[in-house]
Design brief:
By secondary structure, this protein is mainly alpha-helical. The protein has a single domain, classed as Na+/H+ antiporter like fold, CATH 1.20.1530. Helices cover about 65% and strands about 0% of the residues. It has 14 helices and no strands. The radius of gyration is 21 Å and the shape is globular.
């Protein structure tokens, strides 16, 4: 028996578990990500001849594998959202991006600078890579399959899913800010980089990312639904892998012209969704993307567990652990609550959205990406330890609590105890007049 044979066995078992476990853990205080994370730790604690998992030494591979997982998740999120984009309809998302995200980054950077005694560039990098949220790691708090009804999404799930779709792209300018600061000042501080960063990394790349996503999305929407050539109208066929084509095409073309591919992929997905909002082809695309995403997430969390078992948290100091816990338990919830003040969400729903700023695969990607572009004045393994610990705690904490918390909100809304004038009382995920995910007839 060779090592490759064992790897094939584990891959097969992992794929089977990824298909079976969601039904096994449904309705229980347990989640698929937690199972694979714990499995990775448990398997690598056994005396077996397993390959070494080290994102520090295998930085490039880590960057590209997590990159693929993130862009596929972004496509899935955009295809699932029923609500048309607008200043009022997406108000929760704009608040979470414009207020919550930047409050979280600013306070986390200050905490890292003060508590960890890290230089400004390293403190900003830690805050930037921990900025993206990742509801895929707690499926109860994300939007489900596409439906025909654009008002079929409860505000909690919509807010968290739309936030994740957008801030995975908007974390890039913050990461570039940390890279630029480290290049300009090393372990010190300088403001010389801000002008060029604001013009190129904020304005230009964001604008190109959004415009590219809109253009590609409209072209694909026309090809999928409106072209007169039946043989080219892909919505006539049930080929879900077309979603991967849209994902990679949008991402690759946008990166080639210098924009943010993450923003482009999410924008493309939302634009394709808007091209023919009620068509059942969206369910075909979404279901395929969700399956691929589930497999990739399972593999990556298993490998993250392996990294932990092999000593990935050894460089973690108590200050690093406290920084991570403060982010998850204090900084993000309070910043989320502040950002949602005056919005549609009230009471318990506001606190749920504020608290479930889940950290996951996106954080691993941004750290690998940044460390490949610039040296930072702190040990790489210490940075990896703090980020890994944050993701580890987030996966376990949010994964185990999401089900019970959302179920309680469901029950309150069903019984009418949390209904206010002018608000829908339909429970989370319940479609209006149609089974969720049913295709067109």
């Amino acid at each position: 028996m060779t090592l490759a044979d064992g790897v094939f066995v584990w891959l097969g078992l992992g794929a089977l578990l990824a298909a079976v476990l969601p039904r096994v853990v449904a309705g229980r205080p347990l989640s698929l990500p937690v199972v694979f994370l714990v499995s990775g730790i448990a398997v690598y604690l056994l005396p077996l001849p397993l390959p070494v998992v080290d994102p520090v030494e295998q930085r490039l591979m880590t960057e590209h594998v997590t990159e693929v997982c993130v862009i596929i998740a972004l496509m899935g999120a955009g295809l699932a959202l029923n609500r048309p984009v607008g200043p009022r309809s997406w108000a929760s998302a704009w608040r979470l991006l414009g207020v919550t995200m930047f409050l979280t980054v600013a306070v986390t950077a200050l905490v890292a600078w003060w508590l960890l005694d890290w230089p400004p560039a390293a403190a900003l990098l830690l805050a930037a890579v921990l900025a993206p949220t990742d509801p895929v790691l707690a499926s109860e708090v994300r939007v489900g399959e596409p439906t025909r009804d654009e008002h079929d999404e409860d505000e909690v799930r919509f807010a968290l899913t739309s936030e994740a779709g957008l801030n995975d792209g908007l974390a890039f300018p913050l990461t570039y800010a940390a890279v630029a600061l480290a290049a300009a000042a090393g372990a010190g501080w300088s403001a010389d980089w801000i002008g060029a960063w604001a013009v190129e990394d904020v304005v230009f790349k964001c604008v190109v990312g959004v415009l590219s996503g809109l253009l590609i999305g409209r072209l694909l929407g026309w090809l999928f639904f409106r072209t007169r050539a039946t043989v080219l109208r892909l919505s006539e066929y049930k080929e879900g892998f077309v979603a991967l084509a849209a994902t990679f095409l949008s991402y690759g073309l946008t990166e080639l012209v210098g924009g943010y591919g993450f923003l482009a992929v999410f924008t493309t997905a939302c634009t394709v969704r808007a091209a023919e909002r009620a068509h059942g082809f969206h369910n075909v695309l979404h279901d395929f993307v969700e399956q691929v995403e589930r497999l990739l997430t399972a593999v990556l969390l298993f490998l993250l567990g392996a990294f932990v078992a092999l000593g990935g948290l050894a460089p973690l100091t108590w200050q690093g652990a406290v920084t991570a816990l403060l982010l998850l338990l204090v900084v993000r919830p309070l910043a989320g609550w502040a950002g949602l003040l005056g919005g549609r969400l009230r009471g318990r729903e506001r606190w749920v959205v504020a608290a479930y700023g889940i950290r996951g695969i996106g954080s691993l990607y941004y750290l690998a990406y940044a460390l490949g572009r610039q040296d930072f004045p702190v040990p790489e393994r210490e940075l990896w330890a703090v980020v890994t610990f944050t993701v580890l705690v987030s996966v376990v904490l949010h994964g185990l609590t999401a089900g019970p918390v959302v179920s309680r909100l469901d029950r309150r809304r069903t019984t009418g105890s949390d209904i206010r004038p002018g608000r829908l009382s339909r429970p989370f995920g319940m479609a209006s007049g149609r089974r969720r995910g049913a295709p067109d007839s």
